[in-house]
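[audit] Reproducing an earlier prediction to check determinism. Same input, same settings, fresh worker. If the tokens differ from the archived copy the diff job will pick it up downstream; this log only records the rerun itself.
[audit] input (252 residues):
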Amino acid sequence: MSASYPTKLFLAARSGNICALPDCRTSLTSVGNEAEHAVIGEAAHIYGENPGTDKKKPSARFRENMTELERNHYNNLIYLCPTCHTKIDKQEADFPAEILFKFKEEHEAWVEERLDICMSDVSFAELEIAAKAIATGNHSVNGDFVVIPPKEKLNKNNLGNIPRSYIALGLSRSSEVRRFLAQMSLLDGEYPIRLKDGFKHKYSELKTQMNGDELFMAMVVFSQKGFTDFTQQAASVALLSHLFHLCEVFEK
């Protein structure tokens, strides 16, 4: 058993798709020429996953008293580049669990702080880039924009503190998103609908595999499309939050 796909997506989103070791912080998106972007980060276990055998040593920092669920839980994972993942396991003495938990906590706080700071810089240009790949897709899911009371919709979708903080952050740029959608609709009246349907198409696909916080954070990963720039990541969160609040993306 290893960490689940939803857990890995949640971890990647919280880590800003950046290696969590402070002396690395490498972007974990590989941008292709013809191919789509690829995420190359790894969900590394802090307390190791495997007990070992007669011929093989246990994983680094392995603890016998942990359950499989605990070992593969988000709380026991840190998001790293392949090189740093290898380093923390092969140089276990330099990377005790306490240090890795500290790195993880500080890194995720740093990512959240950068998104908060950069959100104020989100403009038409960033929103256009964030929306382009989604709004130009050939999606078949349709529906009307419907305003849902925020608290009711948050509860309906079983969202905890982390998604709520992302939504609150993203909604701080709602006026900019509204202006963007209004301008784009003057050029193409169907643009806002295609954008919404692009999000809803992905949501319909993901909700068969996950729900709640993991589903929302998977949508964050989808909306960010591998962006490495924090202002661009913030623009994606602003779009997702706006559509969460003002149309039928997510359960209503």
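[audit] rerun output stored. Observation attached for the diff report: Residues 113 and 120 are 12 Å apart (CA to CA).
[audit] end
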